[in-house]
Amino acid sequence: MNKARFSSMVAAMALAGCQASDPAPSAPERPPLEGASIGGPFTLTGSDGKPVSFSDFDGKYRIVYFGYTYCPDVCPVDLQHISAGLRRFSKENPTLGRDIQPIFITVDPERDTPAVVGDYVGNFGKRLIGLTGTPEQIAKVAQEFAVYYSKEPGSGPDDYLMAHSQTPFLMGRDGKPLAVLPVDDPSTPKVDEGSAKAIADELDRWVS
């Protein structure tokens, strides 16, 4: 082999060794609750006294939050954050925003009648749907969504608090769980800049 040809081969080998191989394509991000046994079919009572089923919203994303209307602080703040986050997302993504249905399910059916629930959810915009039911129905739905709640006795029969999970679930168009929305983002106390932004970002990640 002549010297010129040998030098050319060495240079080619050196160049090939310096070139980085193409990176393998990264797998698409998967929803954190994908495959979890959370949620399921149910029929409860809407604020107008008529039955509402989970399947009524098939084809839409659903935000499902469990709470109660007499909640002194946690529930109203969470619902403010959810509503503000949904508004923020919908402003940037109007078509997708219309495909998200927020749902409030009470864990206090003894006090939260359809009328009470209807008045309550009206404080958080026109889109939030409030649902109630018999104690047995609520217990079954809460179990399906892995939501804990219990009555904390107060000074009288109607003076009590409800301890419950603080878990807003984002469910897909097929009713399957996707993620838990971050209602308690501590980055800022301002609703529209803290948890609302975090919720909008989470919606942007999974709603398509």
> What does the radius of gyration come to?
25 Å
Order of helices and strands: HEEEHHEHEHEEEEH
Shape: globular
What's the helix count? Answer: 6
Task: Estimate the strand proportion.
Answer: 15-25%
The termini sit apart by 61 Å
Q: Give the overall average pLDDT.
A: 87
Total number of strands: 9
Top CATH class: Alpha Beta
Strand order of the largest sheet: 2-1-5-4-3-8-9
- By secondary-structure content and strand pairing, the structural class works out as alpha+beta
Task: For this entry, give a set of tags.
single chain, 208 residues, Glutaredoxin, 7-stranded mixed beta sheet, two-stranded antiparallel ribbon, 6 helices, disordered N terminus
What does this structure look like?
This protein is an alpha+beta fold. It has a single domain, classed as Glutaredoxin. Helices cover 33% and strands 22% of the residues. It contains six helices and nine strands; from the N terminus they run αβββααβαβαββββα. A seven-stranded mixed beta sheet has the order 2-1-5-4-3-8-9. A two-stranded antiparallel ribbon has the order 6-7. β8 and β9 form a beta hairpin. α2 packs across α6 (195-206). The longest helix is centred in the middle third of the chain and has 19 residues, at 74-92. The N and C termini lie far apart (61 Å).
Write the layout of secondary structure elements.
Blueprint: H1 3-18, E1 43-46, E2 51-53, E3 61-67, H2 74-92, H3 94-97, E4 100-106, H4 114-121, E5 129-132, H5 135-144, E6 149-156, E7 159-164, E8 169-171, E9 177-180, H6 195-206
Parallel strand pairs: 3-4, 4-5
Antiparallel strand pairs: 1-2, 1-5, 3-8, 6-7, 8-9
